[in-house]
Amino acid sequence: MAELDTKDTISHIERDGGEEIQHRVARFEDLSLDEMRILEKKLVRKIDWHLISALFLLFIFNILDRSNIANARLGGLQTDLDLSDTKYQTAVAVMFVGYLLGQIPSNIVLTRVRPSRYMPAAIVIWGGISLSTAAVHNVGGLLAVRILLGFAESPFFCGALLLISSWYKPSEIAPRGAFMYCGNTVANGFGGLLAAGVLNGLDGARGLEGWRWLYIIEGAGTMVAGVLAYLLLPDFPRSGRSKWLSDQEQRFAEWRLACAANDEIDENGSIKAGLKDAFTDPKTWLLVSIQVCLLTSQSWTYFFPSIVKTLGYNNTITLLITVPVYVFGFFTSLGNSLLATYTNSRAVLIMWPLAVDIVGNVMVITSRTTAVRYIGMFLMCAGSYSAFNVVQAWIASTIPRTRTKRATVYALVNLLGNSANIYGSYFFPSHDAPQYLSGGIILSSFAAGGVVLAAVLGLWLRNLNKKAGEAEAQDGRPRYRYLW
């Protein structure tokens, strides 16, 4: 594995209680420490503007096209297509067959091609497929479109996480990943507002049902977003200079990432070695297990409008009152990720949100009081979404190199984690309304499992850091330290 030459260093003096502490800091070219700080601040600001803002926008459309079937159900999709509960649940679940199967191959391909070309192409294709849902007239057509949509969407999320982990240091990833993933809560909240307007205002327009207009509008919007992505998304730092970076900024982008990973340059490595390392690393499977628990606890999302409908309001009010829940989830998720950045903690910031999620589930399934159940829905959203962002950031710091291994782990974690959306589609049958007791118990159980597994991984990484410190003290050679 290639390493960065960090022989040139500069001294950095700090005072702690009157005592001088000297740190040896790697030096970039001929810049002083202050000049390096200024350059880094400018560079990170540019990356934030071009990469994170673009991914945030694109993720909104990603979630809209994936989950608008829940809003379309309230608009009559299930009735118009003569779908039983089981057929509807299968239509929800089948999308994830293609979505999951495409994850690992797509992320490996992404390490070999230009993301600024590959991802926009996928976005335009899935937008077109989503739009075509407006033309289906039976369960067979709906299932076919949903399967194709899953394959078309598979490159985006894991590819976005790989891009983020390739441009930012591990300590910087949590809030960036959180901001992007907050597009999920924004999409669900905005999707409720948009659906309320479309289903109420366009139903019957030009002879089309409102839910068909919903797919037309959102699918067309996604295709436009895909064209914009071609102009906004960068490639990997080492795959050619980005047009919005100077030559010095490009070199510094590569250099600072290598410094953060114990002087190891972020190279692709061989596909065979990357796959082997990913599948044989026990940390991979702990991360996978945490993600499975977390996303299972979050599988209420695709039935949320139906769950809220049990509060007794009409369709328009139901869609509108889903919005505050997702807005609350947006702010708690972002806040938890900022805590992850400032504290460099991971396990505890996964454990407490999942505990809150359990409390929310218990409130929803045990009470018949509208206020209590509605507050419980806020806690469910805040808990499951706040933990998710930290898990994604934890992957990058736990699997720093090589890019192929990291790409495989990201895909594997999300592949197996998102399998929850297949079996989770059957947790909320209509006959369980209004309490959805069995679904709530299952989701709470998985959330509890996530708490335990996060604690196990955190303690293990802490122990590995302790051993690294002891080895470093013996031979003086720096060791990589995990965030736990």
UniProtKB/TrEMBL annotation:
Residue intervals of the Major facilitator superfamily (MFS) profile domain: 51-466
Subcellular location(s) per record: Membrane
Membrane topology, from the record: Multi-pass membrane protein
Superkingdom in the source lineage: Eukaryota
Gene3D superfamilies attached to this UniProt entry: MFS general substrate transporter like domains
Main location class: membrane
Protein name from the UniProt record: Major facilitator superfamily (MFS) profile domain-containing protein
Organism encoding this protein: Phialemonium thermophilum
